[in-house]
């Protein structure tokens, strides 16, 4: 069995970067939390990364492959990420633990308001950052507060899916995250959790489709 983990921003899609003060006024953004704002995810401002989307669609058709989306985007804008994915015919199931009553309630409210929906063809799983902080086994800081960074979130999610997996693949664009994925892959290989790890490193090319480098993760490689 194979597990493929897709990132969203910069990987599945090229999204607008945080705007200048002048541009923020033009688009009506209040200047707070760009990555948690609706302004950052208007459908007409997102460019689909065609190679990555094609790969995700092919993976979803493979009966021996499990596909998940693990993104640093938080649940507050999950409906907009999901709307874009549906526009590309990528229908996924949002996963929220029973322990997170607030997130479950907000998700249901958005469905009732017509801002989100449950599609009959949901064939991949979607994990948004922060949703699992209510779980007892989620990593906590010194004061018992759930750790909020993206890497902790992704590692937690992936670790839950490794049983029975022989090959693990990541699709990722962030240069600062690549060493973490290499270390995670090497650690899981060493522990025998998986037999093979492959990193699909996505490089954004301004004005063009991204370039993807496919990197096997092996013992002894630099990270």
Mind explaining what this structure looks like?
By secondary structure, the chain is of the alpha/beta class. It has helices at 21-27, 50-61, 78-87, 101-112, 150-159, 178-190; strands at residues 2-6, 13-14, 47-48, 65-74, 92-94, 124-129, 167-172, 196-205, 208-217. A seven-stranded mixed β-sheet has the order 5-6-4-1-7-8-9, with helices on both faces. A two-stranded antiparallel ribbon has the order 2-3. Strand 7 (167-172), helix 6 and strand 8 (196-205) form a beta-alpha-beta unit. The protein starts with a strand and ends in a 6-residue tail after the last strand. The model has no long low-confidence stretch (mean pLDDT 91).
How would you summarize this macromolecular structure in one to three sentences?
With 223 residues, the protein is of the alpha/beta class. The protein has helices at residues 21-27, 50-61, 78-87, 101-112, 150-159, 178-190; strands at residues 2-6, 13-14, 47-48, 65-74, 92-94, 124-129, 167-172, 196-205, 208-217. It has one domain (2-15, 45-217): Aldehyde Dehydrogenase, Chain A, domain 2 (3-Layer(aba) Sandwich).
Mean of residue pLDDT values = 91
Main beta sheet, described? 7 strands, mixed
Question: What is the radius of gyration?
Answer: 18 Å
Helix content: 25-40%
Task: Considering the chains and any ligands shown, give keywords for the structure.
223 residues, alpha/beta, seven-stranded mixed β-sheet
Secondary structure blueprint with pairings:
Layout: E1 2-6, E2 13-14, H1 21-27, E3 47-48, H2 50-61, E4 65-74, H3 78-87, E5 92-94, H4 101-112, E6 124-129, H5 150-159, E7 167-172, H6 178-190, E8 196-205, E9 208-217
Parallel strand pairs: 1-4, 1-7, 4-6, 5-6, 7-8
Antiparallel strand pairs: 2-3, 8-9
